[in-house]
Amino acid sequence: MSKRKNTMVRDMKDLKKQSKIMENMKTNKQVKQGGKLPDPIQYKHTKSK
Fold first, then answer.
1. pTM (two decimals)
2. Which is the most buried residue in 2, 29, 31, 33, by most CB within 10 A?
């Protein structure tokens, strides 16, 4: 059984498509200027006791 890497893109065609999507995405600063909140932090590190 071969290992598979978990990646955003599988080939050059997907890479080009994903690049176009990323070019049109707003930055966190632009999102905030529009009166919205950017994506929340997904993982919050807490101190261990």
1. 0.48
2. 31
CA distances from 19 to 31, 43, 45 (A): 19, 26, 31
Of 37, 18, 20, nearest in space to 28 by CA: 37
What does the alpha-carbon distance between residue 36 and residue 31 come to, in Å, rounded to a whole number?
6
pLDDT digits (tens, 9 = 90+) for 1-45: 567 677 778 899 999 999 999 999 898 899 999 999 888 776 776
From the CB of residue 15, how many other CB atoms can be counted at a distance below 10 Å? 13
